[in-house]
Design brief:
Layout lengths: L1 H31 L11 E4 L14 E5 L11 E5 L5 E11 L5 E6 L11 E2 L3 E9 L2 H7 L3 H24 L3
Helix pairs in contact: 1-3
């Protein structure tokens, strides 16, 4: 039983350290190049801010998006794209077309929306294709950037890793 508990705690700590590392890495990338979208291990994390993709994606979910070539996008895929300079959107592709220059255009729609998005999305607006979601992970990522989050998710896991080693070294049991 102790072994299962120890493994469970270690897995939770590893998961939290991964979230923290990716958050810190993203923060550093954003500070160094504010116009670029941060990525971690080739994946771009985003937090869902609206309910337009419910029930598939809920507000507060973190999604990981993988950059892909435009030719690999198919109807039914969920993509993340730039609506304009400031707005990123993740919606499903309902149809594809080619414009007169042979450039792919994607007709998109949020699952919870009644109608398709007004403008077709061009290849130049494509950020990538949805890979996976972490339910409510966006809230956790945002919290890790606060002082309380840093204490809870950096100092506490480090203390949990170090304290058992100190106790073993003192001879107390």
């Amino acid at each position: 039983m102790k072994i299962v508990l120890r493994w469970s705690i270690n897995l939770i700590i590893l998961f939290l350290l991964f979230i923290i590392a990716s958050s810190i890495f993203s923060i550093v990338q954003a500070k160094l190049n504010p116009k670029a979208i941060p990525s971690f291990l080739g994946l771009k994390p985003f937090t869902i801010l609206s309910g337009s993709m419910q029930p598939f994606l809920e507000k507060g979910d973190m999604i990981l998006v993988k950059p892909v070539e435009a030719e690999k996008i198919e109807a039914g895929d969920v993509i993340t794209f730039r609506m304009d300079e400031e707005t990123l959107v993740s919606h499903g592709v309902v149809d594809l077309s080619l414009d007169e220059d042979g450039i792919s255009r994607y007709i998109t729609k949020g699952d919870a929306n009644e109608t398709e998005d007004i403008q077709p999305i061009g290849e130049d607006q494509l950020i990538g294709k949805f890979l996976l979601s972490i339910p409510k992970g966006g809230y956790l990522a945002k919290f890790t950037q606060t002082p309380k989050g840093i204490i809870l998710f950096i100092f506490l896991p480090v203390a949990l890793l170090i304290i058992p080693k100190i106790n073993k070294g003192t001879g107390y049991r």
